[in-house]
TrEMBL record:
Designated name of the protein: CobW C-terminal domain-containing protein
GO terms under cellular component: cytoplasm
Keyword Nucleotide-binding attributed: yes
Coiled-coil residue windows: none
Similarity annotation: Belongs to the SIMIBI class G3E GTPase family. ZNG1 subfamily.
Reactions it catalyzes: GTP + H2O = GDP + phosphate + H(+)
One MF term in the entry's GO annotations: hydrolase activity
Domain named CobW C-terminal: residues: 279-375
Keywords: Chaperone, GTP-binding, Hydrolase, Nucleotide-binding, Zinc
Length: 379
């Protein structure tokens, strides 16, 4: 279902929301929404190991795990899961109750229907994990969960977690870097909010201490060149602190502390000297206020009309908007974006515009120069 083009959400969509919007009135249960974490990763990276770890951990949470398209084994006996009879099988398969309060299920066709059935359950869920197949592009999932129209805010996208294999990642990326094919490994890293660098023990086993450390550092640098906004967590057998991957609220405009830290770290990033078409991160900075309507038009030209032939996967940033004392956040996943006021600017805070782009064929000069049309003249 997740990889079916028929399920891909509409392309040109803007999330309308403002300080004076009635959305807070129309969505009274938004604070009670159940977070959904998408878990993705290349084949063999350890997604199923992570899911299995969560399902068996004593965390005291009621977590539902949705498996897409009967993915790899996760330690649950397959005899316990009703896979239906071929194409005529049930759309949403049987739920399996686990001893630690978790719920496991498989989805054959409809993610939305599976989520609706989960949230209609009598027992309150703390979180939902959605494991994708190894070749899944997480963008359509993010779009469905972020838009949330059908689900009426009963669930919300919490974050995208990508598991990568520390021993094989470099080969997976480099073998496609100069070819016409474009592996999902790049996309899964580009869309991630958290990247679990798994199997670091295997790197250490194959090299001495200093060499192994250098290999890991080089891997992290390669990952950050693709996506500097994601947090990188090292792991062995995907045993991670669950607080690092659950309740991230990566798409919540009010969660500014982490975003501001990321923007500070990314501000010096420049790719103006790179001329190939690889996926990368870049940041543009502006010290003048912006016209919000012009920013929307500029963003729509880039995301919707592909005016500059750039393929933007993710976008995050903060704006200093004309005639507003509110810091505005900007966030986009593919063609979907939102710009919302998040908090008041502090009295002695430097008002600056910073926008980070993750994508392919990005051109820093074009982005910086074209954005100047959105700024106000200096007084």
């Amino acid at each position: 279902m997740m990889e079916d083009d028929d399920e891909t959400p509409p392309l040109a969509i803007q999330i309308e929301e403002s300080a004076n919007s009635s959305s807070a009135v129309l969505k009274p249960s938004e604070e009670d929404s159940v977070g959904v974490t998408v878990i993705t990763g290349y084949l063999g990276a350890g997604k199923s190991t992570l899911v299995n770890y969560i399902l068996n951990a004593k965390h005291g949470k009621k977590i539902a795990v949705i498996l897409n398209e009967f993915g790899e084994e996760i330690g649950v006996e397959r005899a316990m899961i009703n896979e239906g009879d071929g194409d005529g099988g049930a759309i949403v398969e049987e739920w399996v109750e686990l001893a630690n309060g978790c719920v496991c299920c498989t989805v054959k066709h409809s993610l939305v229907q599976a989520l609706e059935q989960l949230i209609e359950r009598k027992d309150r869920l703390d979180h939902i994990l959605l494991e994708t197949t190894g070749l899944a592009n997480p963008a359509p999932l993010a779009s469905i969960l972020w838009l949330d129209d059908q689900l009426e805010s009963a669930v919300k996208l919490d974050s995208i977690i990508t598991v990568v294999d520390a021993r094989n990642l470099r080969v997976q990326l480099s073998e496609h870097r100069d070819s016409s094919s474009f592996p999902e490994a790049f996309l899964q890293i580009a869309f991630a909010d958290v990247i679990i660098l798994n199997k670091v023990d295997l790197v250490s086993n194959e090299a001495s201490g200093p060499v192994a450390s250098r290999v890991i550092e080089e891997l992290e640098k390669e990952i950050r060149n693709i996506n500097s906004l994601a947090e990188i967590i090292h792991s062995v057998k995907c045993e991670v602190n669950l607080s690092k991957i659950l309740d991230r609220k990566a798409y919540d405009a009010t969660q500014l502390a982490h975003l501001e830290t990321l923007l500070k770290e990314t501000a010096s990033l420049s790719t103006s000297n790179i001329h190939d078409s690889n996926v990368r991160t870049l940041c543009i900075t502006e010290h003048r206020q912006v016209d919000l309507d012009k920013v929307r038009l500029w963003l729509e030209e880039i995301l919707w009309e592909k005016k500059y032939n750039m393929d933007v996967y993710r976008c995050k940033g903060v704006l200093d908007v004309q005639n507003s004392d509110q810091l505005h956040t900007i966030q986009a996943v593919r063609e979907i974006y939102e710009i919302v006021p998040a908090r008041r600017w502090q009295e002695k805070e430097e008002r600056v515009v910073k926008i980070v782009f993750i994508g392919r064929n990005l051109d820093e000069v074009i982005l910086r120069d074209s954005f100047k049309t959105c700024t106000l003249p200096l007084l």
